[in-house]
Amino acid sequence: MKKNLITICIILITTLSAHAQIVKLGIKTGVNYANQNGSDITVNNVNYKSEAITNYHFGLVAELPLGESFAFQPEVLYSSVGANYKAAGVLADINNELGYITIPVLAKINLSKTFSLDLGPQASFLVSNKENVLLDDPKSFDFGAAAGLGIKVTKSIFLQGRYVVGLSEASTNAEIKNSVVQVSAGFYF
Questions:
Q1: Is 113 helix (H, G, I), strand (E, B) or coil?
Q2: What's the CATH code of the domain at 109?
Q3: Residue 5 and which of 19, 59, 89, 156 are 20 to 30 A apart at CA?
Q4: Could you tell me the residue range of the domain that residue 171 belongs to?
């Protein structure tokens, strides 16, 4: 019985080690340049226009190669987006920051050994909402499309630039959609 258990453990460890060499796991962090596009916000009969804000993102990333020139790249990130709303003649701005758990699932097309094109959908789940004036209620789910460029600096270190455009409304009452430019740095273990 002990020999069978030891044999099964050796087979499991060997199998997991083989798969660990195929699937790369890592971490990434970076800067968001986010805005909310669409209709302007009206508060107390004052029309506010949106301006982009700078925020951050961080999380886990995986790469599942399917040959030399193609891979899937799923990620789980915390991403802070939103906008700053300004109005002419009004002293106080409205800051709207939304925190999402985002799950992009990207097709990674390797253009060379260094560069890749990343394309795919992104699902986002609202986890925090910081605003200094009560605006329209944000929706708890946001769907978007992502496109970007990846750069392999070394075998483990990578850089990414990406644009994510919201395809669904970010608010229940206003016609606004999230958009964000992300610049990231990461490391595969």
A1: coil
A2: 2.40.160.20
A3: 19
A4: 25-188
Total number of domains constituting the chain: 1
Q: Which residue has the tokens 């506010």?
A: 48
How far apart CA 133 and CA 110 sit, in angstroms, is: 45
Which among 148, 174, 178, 176 has a CA at the least distance from the CA of 165? 178
The amino acid that residue 59 corresponds to is G
**Banded pLDDT at 105 (limits 50, 70, 90):** very high
Give Cα 173 to chain centroid, integer Å. Answer: 24
Strand partners, 29: 58, 185
Give 2-49 pLDDT, tens digit per residue.
Answer: 565 556 545 544 554 454 458 899 999 999 999 988 766 666 677 778
Of 165, 173, 160, 119, whose CA–CA distance to 142 is shortest?
A: 165
The pLDDT assigned to 83 comes to 86
pTM value is: 0.80
